[in-house]
Amino acid sequence: MLRNALEPWHLLLVAIAFIVLFGSKRLPDTARSLGKSLRILKSETRAMRADGAEAGPASAPSPGTGEGGRSEAR
After folding, report:
1. Cβ–Cβ under 8 Å, residues 27 and 18
2. For residue 39, which phi and psi values (nearest 5 degrees)?
3. Which of 3-7, 47-51, 57-61 has the lowest mean pLDDT?
4. Beta bridge partner(s), residue 65
5. Fewer Cβ close by (within 10 Å): the C or N end of the chain?
6. Using CA atoms, how far apart are residues 31 and 11, in angstroms rounded to an integer?
7. CA angle 34-30-19, nearest 5°?
8. CA angle 62, 64, 67 (to 5 degrees)
9. What are the beta bridge partners of residue 71?
10. What global pTM score does this model have?
């Protein structure tokens, strides 16, 4: 029943429905704003990864060290 659910003519009908519902004037503006949003999201995730990579090793003390970074001998 769902083997041929997305044939090319289905996609054509969906595209025509979008054009009718949103109008051909608003679609380029919508696509442009979506592209800007994705670029912002990508740059923010890149910045978060860079911040995490810089802060990660410095904030976690190595195992077996106490306060001040000295090894504890007991």
Report:
1. yes
2. -65, -40
3. 57-61
4. 71
5. C
6. 18
7. 135
8. 80
9. 65
10. 0.46
How far from 44 is each of 6, 34, 40, CA to CA, in Å? Answer: 34, 15, 6
Distance (Å, whole) CA 45 – CA 19: 32
Q: pLDDT tens digits for 24-50?
A: 788 888 889 999 999 999 999 999 998
Cα separation, 41 vs 32, in Å, equals 14
Percent of the chain exceeding pLDDT 90 equals 26
Structure tokens at 23: 């109008």
**Six-digit token string for 34:** 């979506």
Mind giving me the DSSP string for 25-39? HHHHHHHHHHHHHHH
Q: Which residue has the tokens 């090894």?
A: 71
pLDDT confidence bin for 18, thresholds 50/70/90: confident
**Position 5: which residue type?**
A
